[in-house]
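Per reviewer request, we include the raw input and output of the structure prediction for the construct analysed in the revised manuscript.
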Amino acid sequence: MTTKNITAADLRSTIDDNDIVLLDFWAAWCGPCRAFAPVFEKASDANADIVFGKIDTEAEQELAAGFQIRSIPTLMAFRGGILVFSQPGALNEAQLDQVITAVRGLDMDEVRAEVARQQAAAEAKA
């Protein structure tokens, strides 16, 4: 599967309609972004069950701001609609494979329970 260009118009449906989504926030002028692109593309080809999306931070400035992107490339992983990984910096092939393996291995019942605990704690402070 090749990577998919993600825009504000299809971001929510992409995250909601797929079990695992990896998003690469990048820009054409960014050297590390260009170095990470073939690694991301190769992983996309090897993992057809995962949606690999690219968000051009220049074209989608509101998305970049909404996700508080401060450094690119930034990789985000969503599983079951929940953000489970976010890290700036270009990863090598082994590091990206490790992230994919970790995201696949998550116990999503446990993740949802932790999200609920965090939300309850935040509401209690408010």
